[in-house]
Amino acid sequence: MNISLTQALQSFLLSKDFSLIKEFCLSAHPAIVADFLSSLEPQEIWSVLSALDPHKRAEVFCQIDEDSQVALANRLSRLDLAALVTDMSPDDRADLFRLLPHATQEMLLPALAQAERDDIRRLVSYEEGTCGSVMTSDYAALTEGITVAQAIEELRKEAPDRETIYYVYILGEDRKLLGFVSLKDLIVSNPALKVSDIMHRDLIFAHVTEDQEEGARKIAKYDLIALPVVNDAGSLVGIITHDDAIDIINQEHTEDIEKLMAIGGRHEVASYLKTPALDHFKNRVLWVVGLAAIGLISGMVIHRFEATLAHFMILALYLPMLTDSGGNTGSQAATVIIRALALRDLHLEDIFKVLFKELKVSLMLGAVLGALSYGKVLFLSRSLAIPGDMTLSMIALAIALALAIQVITSTLIGAALPMGAAALGCDPAIVASPALTTIVDITGLLIYFNVARFVLGL
Questions:
Q1: Separation CA 143–CA 325 (nearest Å)
Q2: DSSP string, 254-281
Q3: More confident residue, 100 or 422
Q4: How many whole angstroms separate alpha carbon 155 and alpha carbon 141?
Q5: In terms of DSSP bridges, do strands 206-207 and 177-182 run parallel, antiparallel, or are they unpaired?
Q6: What are the boundaries of each domain within the chain?
Q7: Does the keyword Magnesium apply (predicted)?
Q8: Distance of alpha carbon 221 from alpha carbon 106, whole angstroms
Q9: Is domain 140-249 annotated with CATH 1.10.530.10?
Q10: For residue 218, which of 241, 250, 251, 252 has the smallest C-alpha distance?
Q11: Which superfamily is assigned to 277-456 in CATH?
Q12: 35 CA to centre of own chain
């Protein structure tokens, strides 16, 4: 944030010099203007927005963070809020409406025109997380019977009121989606041709109830600028644009990352500093407490082998190395598998191929880490007193063997858990670190002490 520019804006507000404010807002991208406005109070933000023309005002408002949007909307009069919402794009309008308190929603709806009112009600009726909930009804459509020349003339009339006209959807009776033409198709084609002669019939589309992530994935996979969304009857009800797909992917990535680290909550893409500390606490505490409770099992394992540790303190020295290596290799395997599942690169029937591949990887990792740990024990513990008739090389062998087995089992667990979660219909990210780390810590301790007892004859 440019502090001097923000201070200048506040100075212009105090002096009521709206001409300079308007000049800045018109010369900068709406997102840049929104960044500067975010540091102002809601009343100050509205003073700036009021100086802009309705279209620019709506563009800037849509770029402001959601909390500021709601705070500002709650302060506006019904007519001001209705005018602002009317100029917003249908999908942004619906997103704002979902965030508003019920009382504000009830105040707003009667002030809107019937078309906008019906559009909002239809868009917000779809379940959150579906393609219907993120689509916009702002698209260009034509009938198949007109000529290319007539189509271009129609687009000239529609263009000012449409978010995108690069794809034009061809509709039949009851708005059945028949195909589409691109703006390029229309420009380079013979004006006398029928639109039906040049339209693409190999449609890629999404259903209104389909997961929003699947819709975004289709846009990325097929290099689309927009993805049509249809209902059960095959009628076109909206489109998902590429910019909305980017927002969806960001939201899904945020969700996956937070689940990967056992953070609960709604997984919204929100500013870290603007999220209250109490919300951060609520999102983390349940998993942390739950995993800590499960971690007590590790203490019970150590307590069971307390006599062994007391007699062979050297085993305690290398315990962190074992647990760290198991957690690291298990998390690596889980991360790779979760990503492959998310990208649809793996399917449930591939589980045995996955386990076999990870077994090969873990055997190589186990051999390398086991050899390194064997040398490490011999080098670092050469001056320690070894009790009884034991030798340092025997202890080093026991530690190296336990570490190798731990790496192998942790890698296989890290690969199997996400696949198992997917098979049960759960999110694979939930079973990853630190939940995975807790599990491999327990198994690692059991492996460590039992291998030591077997090799050393304890």
A1: 63
A2: HHHHHHHTT--S------TTTS-HHHHH
A3: 100
A4: 9
A5: unpaired
A6: 3-125, 140-249, 277-456
A7: yes
A8: 41
A9: no
A10: 241
A11: SLC41 divalent cation transporters, integral membrane domain (1.10.357.20)
A12: 22
**Per-residue tokens: 143:** 């009938």
> Residue 122 and residue 126: Cα distance in Å, rounded?
7
Q: How confident is the model at residue 11 (pLDDT cuts 50, 70, 90)?
A: low
Residues with Cβ within 8 Å of 203's Cβ and at least 6 positions away in sequence, in order, are 177, 179, 180, 228
Rounded-to-integer distance, Cα 32 and Cα 396, Å: 61
Note whether 342 and 418 are within 8 A (CB).
no
Length of the chain: 458
* Residue-wise pLDDT tens digits, 221-273: 899 999 999 999 999 999 999 989 988 888 777 776 766 665 555 555 555 55
Instruction: Please give the C-alpha separations between residue 333 and each of 19, 148, 340, 365, 413, in angstroms, as whole numbers.
Output: 59, 54, 11, 12, 8
Integer Rg of the chain from CA: 30
Q: Is the pLDDT of residue 178 over 70?
A: yes
Closest-CA residue to 287 (of 429, 445, 422, 128)? 429
In whole angstroms, what is the distance from residue 456 CA to residue 397 CA? 9
Nearest to 150 by CA among 113, 196, 92, 216: 196
- Between CA 23 and CA 146 the distance in angstroms is 43
Q: Which helix (H) or strand (E) holds 177?
A: strand 177-182
Sign, Cα dihedral of 78, 61, 42, 93: positive
DSSP state of 138: -
What fold, for 3-125?
A: MgtE N-terminal fold (1.25.60)
Within this chain, domains 3-125 and 140-249 share the same CATH topology: no
Identify the H or E element spanning 328. helix 319-342
295 burial via Cβ count (<10 Å: 0-12, 13-18, 19+): middle
Phi-psi region of 211 (alpha: psi -120 to 50; beta: other; left: phi over 0): beta
The Cα–Cα gap between 222 and 37 comes to 37
Residue showing tokens 């029937």: 349
Task: Classify residue 145 by its DSSP letter.
Answer: T
Give the C-alpha separation, 239 to 167, whole Å. Answer: 10
